[in-house]
Amino acid sequence: MQLKNNMATREKVHSLRFNQDQDCFICCMDSGVRIYNVEPLAEKAHLRESLFGSVGHGEMLHRTNLLALVGGGAVPKYADNTVLIYDDCTSKLVLEFTFSTPVLAVRFRKDRLVVVCRQQIHVFSFPHSPRRLFTCETRDNPLGLCEVSPLPSADRHILCFPAHKLGAAQLVDLLTTESTVSQAPLTVQAHQSELACLSVNSEGTLLATASHKGTLIRVWDTARRVLLAELRRGSDPATVYCINFSGDSEFLCCSSDKGTIHIFALKDTRLNRRSTFSRMGFLGGYMESQWALANFTVPPECACVCAFGANSTVYAICVDGTFHKYVFKADGCCNRESFDVYLDLVTDEEF
């Protein structure tokens, strides 16, 4: 997910993203790249500006030594149309992929590398003898929206991105798609306006979508392409920054520029709140939507990402450098597990 907010410090964060297991996250900045472990919170690596320049996008491959990086920001050392694969064990660049247009996002699986440009998505075999498998043409995609089910052992192997039709998401089966095979596109008409955020669960069976309006999160069955739940983030329009499923797909969390992290139940939807007027059908769909089981606040209008940990824990990391950890209960109670921590993202002197 791309974040464009300035920090209150001298630093600027260009992107924040959790790894596929949601137990680490990568922070791309003008001063390079920092990688943090979530539990316990600790910095694991710092790739300085002298090595890569400023970095616009980054992706981890679970907890392995491989990183995908794309130049960007104020002082890039590498072009923004090039994806660099960096081996942190050997401290060397091991692969390089160059494209005709800027790269807006990169997604990793243990057997695939997905590169997102504004109107194309390129899928490569990975990591052995990498080659381009196929390219998908997309609707204009300035946010670089694209998600992939991360587990090779998953029930479904889904790649999802904006389809050509307004508000629609396209689904591609990574196991059956080859460069020599042509398939009819499978789409979900998710919203009536432009897509703003996507998320796929670890098994590839569920897709969550939000539009530019940002009031609703819709959850879809990827096999049947049917709506399973409509979750109401709020009544006012908002920019949705991040959506994530819990590892067991029983819960979903989302963040927005309203400064609230919302947590919804997916398995037992009776836990979600509903309007007291929900039985009055003449009031329309607004009253039929499910409202968050629990929520907590972060600095408003500060872009952030959120994810689940063990034992009903939810984390939020904001571009102002704050790290938030809360625990929620089935009754909707949400308690701060620890005091907010400030991550040292300020440019420091090199020794």
UniProtKB/TrEMBL annotation:
Q: What is this protein called?
A: WD repeat domain phosphoinositide-interacting protein 4
> Record's superkingdom?
Eukaryota
Q: Which residues form the signal peptide?
A: none
| InterPro entries tied to this protein | PROPPIN (IPR048720), WD40/YVTN_repeat-like_dom_sf (IPR015943), WD40_repeat_dom_sf (IPR036322), WD40_rpt (IPR001680)
The Gene Ontology biological process terms listed for this entry are: autophagy
Q: Name one Pfam family in it.
A: PROPPIN
Keywords of this entry: Autophagy, Repeat, WD repeat
Q: Does the keyword Hydrolase apply?
A: no
Family recorded in the similarity comment: Belongs to the WD repeat PROPPIN family.
Q: Which GO terms describe its cellular component?
A: cytoplasm
